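re: that complex we talked abt at group meeting.

here r the seqs, copy pasted straight from the sheet so there may be weird spacing, ignore it
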Amino acid sequence: MNGSKSVRKQYVADHIAKLPKSGIREFFDLVNTMKDVISLGVGEPDFVTPWTIRESAVFSLEKGHTSYTSNLGTLTLRREICRYLRRNYHVEYAPENECLVTIGVSEALDVALRALINPGDEVIYTEPCFVSYPAEIRMAHGIPVVVETSVENAFALKAEALRRKITPKSKVLLLNFPCNPTGAVLPLEDMREIAALAIEHDLVVITDEIYSELLYEGTHVSIASLPGMRERTIFLHGFSKAFAMTGWRIGYACGPRDIIDAMMKIHQYAIMCASITAQEAAVEALRNGEKEMKRMRDSYCERRNLIVNGFNRIGLPCLMPKGAFYTFPDIRSSGMSSMEFAKKLLESKRVAVVPGTAFGACGEGFIRCSYAASIADITTALERIEHFIRENAVSREQ
Amino acid sequence: MLDEQIVRMLKEDARLSAAAMAARLNRREEEVAERVKALEDAQIIQGYTAVINEDALSDGKVRALIEVRVTPRRDGGFDEVARRIARFPEVIRLYLVSGNYDLLLEVEGDSLQEVASFVSAKLATIDGVLSTATSFQLKKYKESGRIMGEEEDYERLKICP
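got the structure back, here u go
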């Protein structure tokens, strides 16, 4: 036996040890130490799941539906999903072998990346982005390659910026429009140019369209529906945002059969299947949830108008986001960094927002404010932020 | 479109100001105020009232739903008799309905006797009224889209990605 003084070995895998903790986590811990906080920091609907969906889940339990399902998910749900995509996204998938039901889009993305990436393959994605993307790419042994988007382009990805990042090692392009945290959408002309680049350079596109129903202007177009794209696109979607079902953890991936087959292998061994209760609830969402979904969307739209006009009025320039439920106002005029702004605002005014840097370095100078909050909370938060800005301006002059 | 949005908002919260609605609709305040005025003038908006949970108020009042069968008039259909009934202040709601009876009304009174005597002395004696069936309200669960005393929201995460 060796001497007991020997230093304990580092058991954690190198690539995981090197993985930074989510930037949002640190802030979450801070907020949790405080009381009476108004939060614009949530990335989920403030609605409860519509009753018809909840009721169908209760009924499913009453009937005793508590077993595993097919690894891919129930055929009923997959059929409903494919019908929904055909009708609303104009892209056809076979429910039998081109659709995989997952534990939210998070699992779908993880499985998609693991199915596609050989160690060292490059995955191009945009920032500011959802906090998981670069980490999920690294966990799949890929190399994250970031394209920074900017307020000048309304945080949309431009084909030219993408072209500059493409190398012989590029394999995957990861898109998320409408975007968390910016609310940006991808204009059709940009999408066409990006699709052409993907075809030219033989990239697989993973498109996370979790916010696609929450669009307030124009019509959503999926890149999967553009000519030549279906065969190289993995379409990710779920129920969390549109149907206010975040806690149910239910999403899906649709794509070419060989890729879905590969994803299914990982899902089968790692997960087995999504919860049957959530799957049966999801069927109800697709069959009878549309009216409630539209009602929630109208409500978000009103709150978006209120908060964006509010920010612009109090001197924080803010684009009118076309989708999702986030605003990304510019706080550079305060002279503070995003983290400093968010921390001071929280400490002095008890309003929680998320620093833009939690979503990538180019989020510096911005904060993410969700408007999935009550009108009363948004109104009070705006008043408090206005005071905060005024006090800050006065103290800077002195 | 704008009118519909205004009506929907006011049905949810009648106290909303034109300015508050304008901010949510991304419109000018004057434009919204103008439309509200037009809706009032056209008597599409008939008034602004509160949704009250009377059970919690314990006001001692008695409310009943009354089904009424009526003989329609040759030259006035149900309207004439319905208007006659509607003029009584005790009647707070009145509908013409399809089915086994013709009019459904809600009546409010200070006591059981008051409602009972309204039905027997006033309502049942109106020319054209054939029969009435009175159901006293025991508890109100929902009105104007609101569930009375709905359960409190549970606490969600304050920050999430």
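couple things i noticed - Residues 29-41 of chain B form the longest helix (13 residues). Residues 54-138 of chain B form a domain with the Alpha-Beta Plaits fold (CATH 3.30.70.920).
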